[in-house]
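Batch manifest, entry 17 of 40.
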Amino acid sequence: MKLQTKINRRFITLLLLVFVVAGCGLYFTLVTVINSNIDEILSNRAETVRASLHQNKITLPFHSPDQTIDIQLSNEQSGERQFSDTTIYAASEKSMVSARKLVFPDRINGKTYKVTLVLSHLEADDFVEVAFWFMLGTFIFIILALYFLNRKLSATIWNPFYRTLKELTNFQVDQKTVKGLPSSTIDEFGQMNNVLNQMMRKMTDDYANLKEFSENASHEMQTPLAVVKSKLETLLTDRNLSEEHRKQVQTAYDAASRVSKLGQTLLLLSKIENNQFVEKRSIDLSALVAERLDELDELLALRNIEVAYDLQQSFVVNMNPLLADLLVTNLLENAIKHNVNNGFIHVTLHSSKLIFRNTGKRLQGNPQSLFSRFAKEGVTKDSCGLGLSIVAEICKVSSLSIDYTCVEGEHCLTLSLQ
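Output type: structure tokens
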């Protein structure tokens, strides 16, 4: 949920709460004022009725047709005025309506009479109803006005932020020049953009320096390693070299070869992680797998590994061609290296998933660490533990996912589209 939407919702909720509290307060205030006003009218009317009684202008007992005055003989000798709520029948409404009642005693010609005066709330209720609908209309109008005004102001205020966010989304660390984020008239966003500009320039410079260092280091390492390997190869061809010394030279040659391969692989990983393989096109991985299996036919025959594949459908992925070739090659080489003699490799395409299954020794380590760097079982001496790490990085930049499972002694790597 966007921050602007959250602010709008919280603003409306707070405003609704304020209006509800204010509306309730106004309602109870109106009711109190109206009751007080009606009580005052009843008190004034009581004085008028008493004056008429003492002047014998009213025939006792008395009951008015509109139920507003009732005077009856009472046995009570004393009492005080009492105000209370009641209901009376309103002919205009043809129903019972709420009213206020005043009851007080009065002695006339030596007798005590109970005088009851009633005044309906009908006019007051109409006033409260009008006030309620007026408040509700005013509330809805203010809510809508403030909502749209808040949206307009929020869009204006947050516009620099969204421009900055768009620039950051399009930012690439490998670009040679940084355009810089636009300036803003809002001080806070202006300060943020200045800090982000400095950060982006530093990231670009650091990336360029690291890239140059990695490439130079890899290149410079290969030259002395090539010399070392060349000298060691010369020694290996020397017939005067004893068998013990030959084994030591061979060990040194293998180590130099692994270091050379390790440097090239780490440089490749760095390029993949930094998205330097930008060219992408539709690649049919199933066709590429069949092609690479044909090329590896001799190697498979040496270890008597049976190959079977069902790739009648296409598994098309939008990715870099070089990375696609590396992905397939590493998966097949992994299946061969960690296989057993007289084993098998099965490649199938099922439910838009490319599945590589092969026999092999039981996995001793944690399956979750298979795609980590330098993770290996120690089965092959020439393995540097980066094959599946490269596969994982290629999948990450190519919208693919890879999963490992082991079922009944069969190792299974599954490629699927994200």
